[in-house]
Amino acid sequence: MSGRGRPPPRPWVWTRCVWLALWPALASAHLVTTGLGPFYDGISHFFLSLDDVLPVLAMAVLGGLQGAAGGRRVLFALPAAWAMASVAGLMVGGPDITAVTPALSAIVLGLLVATDRRLSSAMLLGLAVALGLLHGWMNGAAIAAANRGTLALLGIACSTFVAVAIAAGAVVASRAPWMRVAARVAGSWIAAVGLLLLGWSLRG
Amino acid sequence: MSDQRDDNARAATRGQPGTRRNSRAALAVFLCCFGLPALAHVQQGQAAGFVTGMLHPVSGLDHVVAMVAVGLWGAQLGAPAIWLLPVTFPLVMAIGGFLGLVGVPLPGVEVGIALSALLLGLAVALEWRPPLWAAVMLVGFFAVFHGHAHGTELPPGESGLLYSLGFVVATGCLHGVGIATGLVHRWDAGRIALRAMGAVVATTGVYFLIGAIS
Predict the structure, then answer these.
(1) Cα separation of B175 and B14, whole Å?
(2) How far is A10 from chain B (nearest CA, A)?
(3) Strands annotated E in A149-204
(4) Contact B151, B164 (CB under 8 A)
(5) In a domain, A50, yes or no
(6) Phi/psi at A63 (nearest 5 deg)?
(7) Residues of A in contact with B90 (CB under 8 A)
(8) Contact A200/B95, CB-based, under 8 Å?
(9) Which residue from A110, A59, A112, A190 is spatially nearest to B168, judged by alpha carbons?
């Protein structure tokens, strides 16, 4: 009710704030030694593991290209299969197929996106479940080997749900004519990366 | 009521003349140029792999002109070549990289790369319009050489996956530069400029061809 409002901040305050903001110390946001707790470790593990992220993105885009119903199938089937298989992998352990599997997943799914194949809903569901089972199993076995918390698996499965929701949703919701082309280009890139990754792993 | 609001507005700006505000903004921008890296995500060699992969295609002019020429030609040919060529190229290039990685030798790689710049440049310069499958085959054939030569040079200690990702993304961006530049095709003057660019690419190809053969 003063009618004058607050006085404007003095210029040197801003200058000092900007100045201080420009000399950051190391942030060390992801504490490798202490972790952020197993659930958040799982989330960061997924988003920093491109050999998981790329096939999941390809699967999400593939689902999105089939329309809203297709996207929805992938959205629920993939994380569910992933979660179940990761628990199984955690308990049983698994064969070491981590070198070749991500490459093959990226190649197959990337090629399907690049060629914009119209898939039957059973086929799409099968692909999503297969991807979830394979990668989930590998994740579970790796978590068991690293002796990390089981909550990490929940974090990873939730992350796949979020990643699929964002990617498939973007493809389904966009009305832009170039979206389909952009999706196919992305698919070809993912397949290309998968092929090179296969080369790296065969080279040893 | 509105008088009072005007009063407030005037009070808020009082003491901050425009020049002062501008110089403060300029100071902030200037200081931003000296920001230190925060290094929040440090994983051994990972980011380095991506950046190396990104920079690798850009480091060789023979690779750059051929990639841009693919985009230029695609834009010149119009749909569906405008996106079919850039979708084909990374895939076939990866096959070349795969062959290089598993140790299959490919003779005359440098000649192939120089020839790709020469022929793709000529195709743009002459506005050559082959059937779509022939254009795709031509681009795909040369992509093998590019992949074989450039996709396999990973510095030790860096992530192969991130290197490959950076490499593919950079190549795709070079196509994008070609396509965006090639959109001048819609104007008459642009059509001539596009053909001139093709001629420049072809000349570069001749230069590298001489270097590769001699």
Answers:
(1) 52
(2) 9
(3) none
(4) yes
(5) yes
(6) -65, -40
(7) 188-189, 192
(8) no
(9) A190
Give the model's pLDDT for residue A38. 80
Contact A105, A194 (CB under 8 A): yes
Q: Which chain B residue lies closest to A25 (C-alpha atoms)?
A: B38
Residue A162: which domain range?
Answer: 31-203
Whether A20 maps to a domain, the answer reads no
Number of folded domains that form chain A: 1
**Higher-pLDDT residue of A141, B58:** A141
Complex prediction ipTM: 0.72
Q: Does the residue A161 lie in any domain?
A: yes
A1 falls within a domain: no
Interface test with A, best of B98, B154, B162 (most A CBs within 10 A): B98
From the list B24, B93, B98, the residue facing A11 with the nearest CB is B24
Q: How confident is the model at residue A120 (pLDDT cuts 50, 70, 90)?
A: very high
Q: Which residues of B31-41 are buried (b: 16+ CB within 10 A; e: fewer)?
A: eeeeeeeeeee
Rounded to the nearest angstrom, the gap between the alpha carbon of residue B92 and the centroid of all alpha carbons in its chain is 17
Contacts of A114 in chain B (CB under 8 A): 87, 91
* Among the partner residues B12, B28, B169, nearest to A8 by beta-carbon distance: B12
